[in-house]
Amino acid sequence: MSYQLIICEKPSAAMRIAYALGGTHVRRERYKGLPVFWLEIEGKRVAVVPALGHLYGVEQNSTGWSFPIFDLRWAPLKDRRKRMWIEAIAEIAKGADSYVCACDFDVEGSLIGYTILRYACGGVDIKAKRMRFSTLTKEELRSAYKNALGRLDYERVYAGKVRHEVDWIFGVNTSRALMDAMGRAGGGFEVLSAGRVQSPTLYALCRREVEINLHVPDPFWSLNSEVVIKGAKYPAEYKVKEFFSRKEAEDVAERCQGKRGYVKDVLVKRKRIPPPPPFNLGDLQREAYRVFGYSPSKTQRIAERLYLSAAVSYPRTSSQKLPHSLGLGRIIEKLGRTERYREAARRILEKGIVKPREGRSTDPAHPAIHPTGTLPKRMSGEEGRIFDLIVRRFFATFGEDAILEEREAVVEVNERDSFKVRARDLVESGWTEYYRPYVAWRKTEGQRFEVNDEAIFVRVDVEDKFTAPPERYTASKLIAYMERQGLGTKSTRAEIIDNLYRRGYIEGREIKVTDLGFAVVGILKRFFPELVSVKMTSALEGDMVEIESGRRDQVEVVLKVVDTMKPVFERIIEKYEEIGEELFGVMNQLRRNELGPCPKCRSGHMRIVRSKKSGKRFIGCDNYPNFCNFSFPIPQRGKISRSNADCNFCGFPIIEVKDGWKIWRFCVNAGCPSNKR
DNA sequence: GCAAGGTC
Q: What would you report as the CA-atom Rg of chain A, rounded to the nearest whole angstrom?
């Protein structure tokens, strides 16, 4: 008897879909490692199988590392597990008589389903149906199955294909151009890269770096003051915040230091602070940076581990929604079985109505990040921290509004001098109780300042200051910038930032762009300014929308991209030497310290130089020609680096050359017996 | 060895 085949995006989704459609009669088996769910719907046999995200991707239709390449094909990704799953799905598809794509209802999901149905299942995409759903709830999945579209959503599929192909054409070709130009200039091999998302991100960092460099610090003076009212100390702010001469500030300090004033006026404002929304990935990454100092990629890795151990829900989500169907009451109850969360869970459940605060962002396939109620037996310290942050944030969304009282007093010392004193009290702690220790506001006991209270100025200090340059980005701030600009996706942003570090384009926690980063952006801007612009992404998105709505043809869009890129690469090839020299020069600076001190004069550094006469590269001392004439010939190809060892014969440094898979080492002393053969 | 996007 034949059956229907339903393709899903990932294992967890396949399981949800299988149980939603099959009720209790689901039989689970493994075929070549692939989970297969067998069930019946109205007497018809059905097999539900998962993919692992993309199983197919674009690759060049030729071999080698030449450029530019425009001829691409879709092929299985080079991953053993994925290849096994493709084989397994292909065999199961042979026995099927109808097909349904039940991947996430977005561009990438539609493409994942399409490539599998087309390339693994023998072109059955043309007779497949498409389930459309926005959450993986039972009701919605059943209705999505019943009302499935009678064909694949090809418009969305084509938009996805174009996204992949265009990114490859821009990214891989430009990266190869950079690497190749540097290699030919004698700079050896180093991984360099450029792309639609990473290059505009790096450009934004460069612009900030330039602003910082252009900043001229102006001196100014300010007062740092403290006042005691009713026995409590408060910082006080003088009515003038910036003085432009030290004398002015000193005069005020002299008039006020140690003096008694009185509270002339008090302004009280009450603010209602609703609970924060539940986490999506970006929120979690920013919050974990704020409270633990974790980088976004670290937080993501930890959250993914917690997801794999079933402690938290799917972390790669942009949703800030917690639909009732998640069984929120049950989750709270399960968490409440542990000592740690007992009290909070009890108080939330006591209220009766379990309704969380939600945020505005949604996600086509997942709810906000939340605990599942399962507690993993073992968690590392880091996992425990992130887990606790997620649990307490989840609890907080069920809390009442917090009420903050802000009191602002005007304190007068004499007729000329007055200060502002601010105090903030938590009147109703509401949700903040659940979110401790991650929120600092506390209820304050004791008296509050009132009109006519005495105020003693225990400190009025003059401070020398300078106007500050704009702040550097941190990875956390950079993620927020990328989100605002629509650069990358929730799943890729952290990884792309990591990549910029790995390439040596940026460094430091407060991100600084290196000379190499500047050189790459400079070259891109000269030859292909669009690639450093955030508009590149919006333009591609515009094209994708037009393809999705059927107004434009996918092939035409890719051809247009090829047409705009061809002259760009021609220009690059014309200026190959210039580009190569520039990268080579910068690389050399970076490698200066890597090669180590000069073994002859001991004060300079070894570096790679290129002879003006012969065009060949060699190792020379950077004290040449003034104090030192050390030199040593090296192979013209390959990456040069200092090895950890010194020569056994003469003690000179050993240099390593890596060219593809070949590695060889030699001593940099031309007169050393190890070099005589 | 190169992009950006999905997923373990």
A: 32
Distance, CA of A206 to CA of A522 (rounded, Å): 10
SS3 state of residue A263: strand
Chain B nucleotides with an atom closer than 7 Å to a protein C-beta: 1-8
A308 touches strand B (CB under 7 A): yes
Q: Determine which helix (DSSP H) or strand (DSSP E) holds A333, and give its type and residue range.
A: helix A328-335
- Chain A, 534-593: which CBs lie within 7 Å of strand B? none
**Residue where one domain finishes, among candidates A396, A426, A453:** A396
Q: What's the count of helices (H) and strands (E) in chain A, helices before strands?
A: 18, 22
* CATH (domain of A122): 3.40.50.140
Q: How far, in Å, is the CA of A600 from the C1' of nucleotide B4? A: 48
Do A454 and A481 share a domain, yes or no?
Answer: no
Q: Is the dihedral of CA A511, A517, A519, A524 positive or negative?
A: negative
| Enclosing domain of residue A185 | 163-213+474-576
Same domain membership, residue A390 and residue A406 = no
Q: Are residues A570 and A543 in the same domain?
A: yes
**Alpha helices by DSSP H, A95-153:** 107-115, 138-146
Residue-level pLDDT at A7: 98
Q: Nearest CA to A441 among A382, A500, A401?
A: A401
Question: Residue A588: which pLDDT band, with cuts at 50, 70 and 90?
Answer: confident
Find the range with the poorest average confidence among A153-167, A551-565, A588-602: A588-602
Place of tokens 């017996």: A673
Higher pLDDT, A19 or A666: A19
**Residues A456/A228, Cβ–Cβ less than 8 Å:** yes
- Alpha-carbon distance of A83 to A77, in angstroms, equals 7
Nucleotide closest to residue A51 (CA–C1'): B7
From A389, A395, A309, select the one nearest A357 (Cα to Cα): A395
